[in-house]
Amino acid sequence: MATKKMAIIATKGALDMAYPPLILASTAAALGWEVQIFFTFYGLQLLRKDLSGIAISPVGNPAMPMPVPMPVVVSILPGMEAMATSMMKAKMKKKGVASLEELRSLCQEAEVKFIACQMTVDLFEFEKSDFIDGIEYGGAATFMKFAGETDVCLFI
Amino acid sequence: MNFDKEFDASGLACPLPIVKTKKALADMASGKVLKVVATDPGSVCDMQAFAEQTGNALLESTTENSKYVFFLKKA
Questions:
Q1: What is the β-pairing status of strands A113-117 and B33-38?
Q2: Domain residues for B23?
Q3: Model-level pTM?
Q4: Is the backbone peptide bond immediately before B15 cis, with ω within 30 degrees of 0?
Q5: Closest CA to A98 of A20, A10, A13
Q6: pLDDT tens, A3-16?
Q7: Statement: residue B60 has pLDDT above 70
Q8: Domain count, chain A
Q9: Given CB atoms, is A152 within the 8 Å cutoff of chain B?
């Protein structure tokens, strides 16, 4: 059985959008797939050493379940994003959902290759020291080289 | 059923039961049997898909007192 391959482009840095790339990558690696994730734009947040700033916002997010119905004007008040984030994290913990840190470590242990988009690293003026070790830096051509050989290729 | 190692995935949500089952199998010799206990209802389909894609045989998949019990034979 030839090794299957998956490439993911991770472009989002909000808490809910941070999960899918890491869940799919860690699972595919557990199934014996070769996996690469290319992190670009806000997806770069997932490579930072400190993931505590990753948040979820009730603003512009009408599908987010709230304990009580909340008018949009309330959801934009100071502190609402922090509250929504801490409630979501508490719920995830209670339901046995892995933290982003844990999923990311599981990916790295399983040799998922992480590639940071050099252009957006420069654009947002990140330093390599902001990011975890064991990642590579590259551009679109780097991604296409692997993506062209994959069985599954996702833009998240 | 006899088994050589047990992994308790109770309380863990997707994808941890599968990812950690893979880790539990890693240091086992071919032919040895791993028992996995999970509480995630999704693990019933997921464990079968895992077995089919990795070649580790799913010998048994049962439900006991709202726990899901699997026996996997390492390929």
A1: unpaired
A2: 5-73
A3: 0.91
A4: yes
A5: A20
A6: 999 999 999 999 99
A7: yes
A8: 1
A9: no
